[in-house]
Amino acid sequence: METIEQKLERLEFYQTLLMQMVQANSFPFYKLVMEKQLSKQDMEMFFKRCEALTKELQEQKADQFVFFYPLFQKFKEGLHKKLDAKEVILACKQQHLFPELMKALEKNI
Question: Average pLDDT by consecutive 10-residue portion of the chain (109 residues)?
């Protein structure tokens, strides 16, 4: 009978194979999440943070803001410690996640 450790090792191996099968160009942010071994909660927090920052971006644009460096700083400070801001922004942009926000943030990389 297979132990829990053996099952876990097998699942980790399968995950590695799946990541190699998935084209990085298709879902680069999700691939990054798996590579950095983030949890579902980490990803949910990231999405909530991006939703809040998108709302803030829209408010700033309505107020005629043109520079969004403070927003970039908030984004960077709120990122999981395993993530790099530039890598995340480019991956999200490529995967079409929060396009308006990522376009504004990319200008500050």
Answer: 94 87 79 92 97 97 92 97 98 96 97
